[in-house]
Amino acid sequence: RKEVEQDPGPFNVPEGATVAFNCTYSNSASQSFFWYRQDCRKEPKLLMSVYSSGNEDGRFTAQLNRASQYISLLIRDSKLSDSATYLCVVKFYTGTASKLTFGTGTRLQVTL
Amino acid sequence: GAGVSQTPSNKVTEKGKYVELRCDPISGHTALYWYRQSLGQGPEFLIYFQGTGAADDSGLPNDRFFAVRPEGSVSTLKIQRTERGDSAVYLCASSLLGDTQYFGPGTRLTVL
């Protein structure tokens, strides 16, 4: 079983739609959680951190459920520019290092 | 300011050859990470440096892979006797004291 699992998609949605991505992780000792965005043939860029209390950044809302080991990302009022791959990321501290473990990513295509 | 830079951006080599991939982290960032991203997958951790020393090299797939960071800044990932399965995008990231990781644009390695 992969440490971080995501539906690879693609999710094809019209402009203005609301879309939600989910992710599960297997290591209960994981300590920090993030969503990264990756455009085609580009490097991953941090979109937002994810907290148990839930956090919002404009049209983006992220949520963490530690009991279920589940992370979500909600995008409201989708824009064409939101088309990208969204990577669910878990950070685990080993004492000497903080490693990021990435899911395979969920591809989003927003259309007119 | 300048972000993480990686050279070359593309490298094509023949099976069995030796390659070196270079990473220039953000100035002042003490932590440096190497990841490998295969097509359709998320980045996979290879090795982490804190300063000059490799704090965690558990992600290196075998002894053909080696990385150095002799002066605590620039790092070189070295791959000996390349195999077709080594073809991937090699990403470097840096962070300040284990905080947010910023990724470089990657080196696309193709082994023929």
How would the blueprint of this fold be written?
The complex is a heterodimer of chains A (112) and B (112).
Chain A: E1 4-6, E2 11-14, E3 19-25, E4 32-38, E5 44-50, E6 55-57, E7 60-65, E8 70-75, E9 84-93, E10 98-102, E11 106-111
Parallel strand pairs in A: 2-11
Antiparallel strand pairs in A: 1-3, 3-8, 4-5, 4-9, 6-7, 7-8, 9-10, 9-11
Chain B: E1 5-7, E2 10-13, E3 19-24, E4 31-37, E5 44-50, E6 53-56, E7 65-68, E8 75-79, E9 88-95, E10 102-103, E11 107-111
Parallel strand pairs in B: 2-11
Antiparallel strand pairs in B: 1-3, 3-8, 4-5, 4-9, 5-6, 7-8, 9-10, 9-11
Q: What would your notes on this structure say?
A:
The complex is a heterodimer of chains A (112) and B (112). Chain A has 112 residues and is mostly beta strands. Helices cover 0% and strands 57% of the residues of chain A. Chain A is built from no helices and 11 strands. In chain A, the strands form 2 sheets. In chain A, strands 2, 4, 5, 9, 10 and 11 form a 6-stranded mixed beta sheet that branches. In chain A, strand 7 (60-65) and strand 8 (70-75) form a beta hairpin. Chain A starts with a strand and ends with a strand. Chain B is mainly β and 112 residues long. In chain B, the strands form 2 sheets. In chain B, strands 2, 4, 5, 6, 9, 10 and 11 form a 7-stranded mixed beta sheet that branches. In chain B, strands 1-3-8-7 form a 4-stranded antiparallel beta sheet, with no helix packed on it. In chain B, a hairpin with a 2-residue loop joins strand 5 and strand 6. The N and C termini of chain B lie far apart (37 Å). Chains A and B meet through strand 5, strand 9 and strand 10 of A and strand 5 and strand 10 of B.
